[in-house]
């Protein structure tokens, strides 16, 4: 316990307050880091947390701080904690809370709030907002602590809900008056949650049914999603893949769970694998838009899906689930591996060979595009150069956001270590990049490369100062083609920049120099390699502005089909 308790001899009690109790409850539950932006009424909470030994990382905007907390949740398997002020600061954190929930990342957003008596009668308090009601639609749960004696219970419930079952974002409202409330420590009632995400075993009959269906398949496929990465069942997943010989396809944040260079990876033969697979084992991956909802023409109309998920409500969401395997991935995959003794599965050789052939052809085409020494640089040129340098840093974390920057980056950059890639995820959200990068550096101490489109960078660019203030080993690489998607559109009236146009000749490197970081401006792959090599070996904050061809890229990246077009103007 760190609470500085005051002995009040006149009343014969030991007094503490809400601020101290929140810090004590977080520490008791092993919270080591808080991400946030201070102000009324939580400034002293951040101060006390820091004084108690909790690491406090102060951001410039709550959205980026929230994205950092969400990424910390994914990377550490423990809820990341965001701290915000009331009203607008709270709302700034909402995108991050919603994004964490959609992505199934455990996170607790603690929001200081205004005077309940004034807010509830809409009497016009400072930063007045009914935060609990506002948070509800965007969170796995939204809770409020109304009395200091409930702080222990409130923190325990928030952490438990965030981490257990399908992980997600929990909003915890703490009014200023509760933080300031004093009480006898005897009434504090703090507790540590025990086994935050208990194992959940699947039914034996479902395990047998799944293995029998896989054994009968001619073209089986395993799809690994970020739920599988989060579950930390790396050894059992490898055992299942290798014992069955079934090809696997990693979703983008599951890359590295098994190395991309693994002989059974069919990342480079994705289209063929989806179109041809007859039995698909989904492990912590949803059949959402990222997997074309499991529908033709991307998938075979006859494909049968076996799904492993902790949330049974996920089954049958888009296609019939042939075998639902409800449980946590560690327990389910462990049971599948064990079940192989009685229900052996061996992937047909022809199917593997077919996919291996396609992989070879596609890999060669990709290598050609990446090694072309094009100036002005194309996305493949720049990402190919980055790939060469990162090959020497397998432990580096890769953060990737943008449209073409993301779509091409996902394919070009191989990963060989689990949970080292963070990107726009399920929501396709922009603005996560610098928050994710900061969390990766803070939580791991390893070098981080944030590869950002110039538009994506702008959403959280001011956090470059946060990176410099904490001297984090983060290199931000901006692939600057001068626009949202690309930089060559024109306003037909000639009056103003077109809606998609930014500034292709911007020198973003000056931004980081303002805060003492190293800034580079490059326009050739050779200079990009040199700058990235230097920044990676320095371990210091750096920003590399890469001048790309303004014609490089496609509108909406790989999502052109989702972008409706109006009649010609
Ligand atoms: P991707 O975008 O990589 O395809 P998704 O976010 O769509 O992955 O899917 C992740 C799935 O994993 C979610 O449906 C979630 O319920 C599930 N999940 C998360 N953690 C676990 C776990 N420990 N055990 C089982 N399922 C999990």
Supply database-style keywords.
lyase; 6-stranded parallel β-sheet; TPP_enzyme_TPP-bd; 17% strand; Rossmann fold; 20 strands; 3 domains; binds adenosine-5'-diphosphate; alpha/beta; globular; THDP-binding; Oxalyl-CoA decarboxylase; magnesium ion binding; 569 residues
Structure description:
With 569 residues, the protein is α/β, with parallel strands linked by helices. It is built from 21 helices and 20 strands. The protein has three domains: 15-187, Rossmann fold; 204-356, TPP-binding domain (Rossmann fold, 3-Layer(aba) Sandwich); 372-556, Rossmann fold (3-Layer(aba) Sandwich). Helix content is 38%, strand content 17%. The strands form four sheets. A six-stranded parallel beta sheet has the order 4-3-5-6-8-7, with helices on both faces. Strand 7 (141-144), helix 7 (151-163) and strand 8 (169-175) form a beta-alpha-beta unit. It starts with 5 loop residues before the first strand and ends in a 22-residue tail after the last strand. The mean pLDDT is 95. The chain binds adenosine-5'-diphosphate (ADP).
